[in-house]
Design brief:
The chain is α/β, with parallel strands linked by helices and 87 residues long. It is built from four helices and four strands; from the N terminus they run βαβααβαβ. A two-stranded parallel ribbon has the order 1-2. It has a two-stranded parallel ribbon with strand order 3-4.
Length: 87
């Protein structure tokens, strides 16, 4: 069984995708919503601390960010998408 986890901001806590996930991790409310979703270090830290094995970045934000894919890879988390080299 593969479980799903997601990161979200406080404003998104009642959205449908939040309820479809097995577990959700709320990102910092001290940042703007866009800044929170672009906070690579925090997202990778959440993944590592919670044993997340792979990340599907969705669309936009970090989906085509080579730095994000590389940081995940360096921390043992699979980036579900193009390789770092292709990005």
């Amino acid at each position: 069984h593969t479980s799903t986890h997601l990161t979200n901001i406080h404003k998104d806590r009642f959205t449908q995708h939040r309820y479809k996930a097995d577990q959700a991790f709320e990102l910092s409310s001290s940042k703007s919503p866009v800044a929170a979703y672009l906070d690579i270090d925090t997202i990778v830290k959440v993944c590592v601390q919670n044993g997340v094995q792979a990340v599907h970045p969705g669309y936009g934000f970090l989906s085509e960010n080579a730095s994000f894919a590389k940081k995940l890879e360096e921390n043992g988390v699979k980036f579900v998408g193009p390789t770092v080299e292709n990005l």
